[in-house]
Design brief:
This protein is of the alpha+beta class. Helices cover 34% and strands 21% of the residues.
Length: 529
């Protein structure tokens, strides 16, 4: 790895290769004392702004202009729902937009080299949102990609010159040597550290996953890609945070929205100062920090909701619709718990226009009405669930899996009743979100019952394929079990469980549908007693 990442360009600037005495990583820098990544080094930029009144839009425009001047072409962003991928549900990085077709040379890239500002969603760091100053689920990956165009030295030079253009000196920038793998590809990489914060990852992607490959990385075998891919990812929000020196990345990115939520949550100056001091010290009392952490989480999930709903997600119990519903319920739980407001319309509008102004000018105004409608419908459904479980005996639940199963089967409002759960709600959220991102939580499976269905029953017409936005329909009952618990209709909008995904829930007349499953081409609806 050190040989592959050795750089004459960096050495010409005075960089030397060291081994960090704290973490053991190799890095290019100007001091042998360490790589300087937090918590080894505190965030020295907080309270020390380089630029005042700088927005994410201005930073993105600056990034675009710099790379266009270096012969890169700007391409539009892709949806946050990775429908072109069989192995990924969400767009977690800009390179996902080009795997595997472009990276393997099957199709030409939309431009070469290119620059893109890709909204991404990563739920794997959810537990840290609000309890560190830097983590978020939603973020913008500003990136430049090249396919058989240039390689290591040119990539490093572009990085140094871009940050110099923003006023940083090479002496402030450390390049930590590492390996990266994801989406079936891998390669050596540099992690770019400034003032304790990782702000970019620069990958020399040249491996593809291959069972017959001769290179082994972390238990997987790889062979050489036919295309040498420059895969970079610059954290736009993090760079803005360093430039503005604000207390958290959220304060840097959404200054007006943060002020609005602080008023809603009743946050005073001393309370926030104490919270920020905890974050920056790395010694956070999660209970004491809960109110402020919840405020920032609400902000993060407003962005998640707007992006998912705008890009085509429909609240449901499957795939991206499942994550959208989960995010909406999280947002309402936080709102109702800490404020006197009942709906999120005003905040959703503010977030929608913030995205349009700062990230994607093409954000479709027509989708705002849909987002607000979804929030209203889901709010009413969620209120009923909150009431339904108000007198529930929570002592019946013993493990995170018990809680997750009750959410899956009956819609337990886990965030609203988190203080009555036998575990941290974050553990349950990770199980639920993980079940959609990785194909299913194995511990949350229900056995399918083989029912004595009449052979003459025709296959069920699956209306969710012809109209995925449909929430109501009329259907004819073809069969009912003797105990009246199972029903087969001639048509349905209930998506059945399968492939690791739980089924849709809802109502048939006044009976709640707990789940739907496929048997012999017929979709069976299981009703609550």
């Amino acid at each position: 790895m050190q040989t592959a990442l050795s750089s004459k360009y960096l050495e010409s600037l005075g960089y030397k290769l060291y081994r960090c005495p704290h973490c053991g990583s190799f890095y290019y820098g100007f001091s042998p004392k360490g790589c300087g990544e937090y918590p080894e080094k505190p965030y020295s930029f907080v309270g020390n702004p380089r630029i005042h009144d700088f927005s994410l839009r201005q930073l993105i425009d600056h990034y675009t202009k710099f790379f266009e001047e270096h012969d890169h072409t700007l391409v539009p962003r892709y949806p946050v729902i990775a429908r072109w991928r069989d192995d990924l549900l969400l767009t977690i990085a800009s390179i996902v937009c080009f795997q595997p077709w472009v990276t393997e040379g099957i199709v030409e890239p939309p431009a070469n080299p290119l620059v893109i500002h890709q909204p991404c969603l990563r739920f794997d760091d959810y537990r840290n949102v609000g309890y560190t100053a830097r983590h978020s689920v939603a973020f913008t990956m500003s990136a430049h990609h090249a396919f058989n165009k240039y390689w290591k030295e040119e990539m490093l030079q572009l990085c140094i010159e871009f940050f110099q253009d923003l006023g940083f000196l090479p002496e402030e920038i450390t390049f930590k040597l590492s390996m990266w793998e994801g989406g079936g590809n891998a390669g050596e990489c540099y992690e770019v550290i400034i003032s304790g914060l990782e702000v970019a990852t620069l990958v020399l992607m040249h491996y593809k996953e291959d069972p017959q490959g001769t290179v082994e990385l972390q238990g997987r075998r790889y062979s050489e890609l036919p295309v040498k891919v420059i895969d970079t990812g610059y954290g736009a929000e993090r760079i803005l945070w360093i430039l503005t020196g604000k207390p958290t990345v959220f304060d840097a990115v959404y200054p007006e929205l943060v002020k609005h939520l602080e008023q809603l949550f009743g946050v005073d100056k001393d309370e926030k100062e104490q919270y920020i001091n905890q974050l920056l010290s790395g010694r956070v009392d999660r209970q004491a920090a809960k109110k402020l952490a919840s405020m920032y989480r609400l902000l993060d999930f407003l962005r998640v909701i707007c992006l998912l709903a705008h890009d085509g997600a429909v609240p449901s119990n499957k795939k991206d619709g499942y994550l959208l519903r989960l995010a909406i319920r999280q947002a309402y739980s936080l709102l109702w718990k800490y404020t006197e407001k009942e709906d999120l319309k005003e905040e959703a509008k503010q977030m929608f226009y913030w995205i349009k102004e700062n990230i994607d000018p093409a954000f479709d105004q027509r989708r705002l009405e849909y987002i607000l409608e979804v929030l209203e419908i889901e709010k009413e459904r969620f209120k009923k669930l909150v009431e339904q479980f108000r007198n529930f005996d929570f002592s019946r639940l013993k493990t995170p899996e018990d809680v997750a199963k009750l959410y899956e089967t009956q819609g337990l409002p886990i965030f609203y009743y988190e203080d009555r759960l036998p575990c941290e709600v974050d553990q349950v959220f990770e199980l639920l979100a993980g079940s959609k991102l990785t194909g299913g939580v194995k511990k949350i499976k229900q056995e399918k019952k083989l029912l004595p269905l009449p052979k003459e029953l025709p296959p069920t017409q699956q209306e969710y394929y012809t109209d995925p936005y449909c929430t109501e329909t009329r259907a004819r009952i073809l069969w009912v079990s003797e105990n009246e618990k199972y029903v087969v209709l001639d048509r349905t909008i209930f998506y059945p469980e399968g492939g690791g995904q739980p089924a849709d829930t809802g109502f048939i007349n006044n009976r709640r549908v707990r789940r739907a499953f496929l048997q012999e081409g017929k979709i069976v609806h299981e009703l609550e007693d």
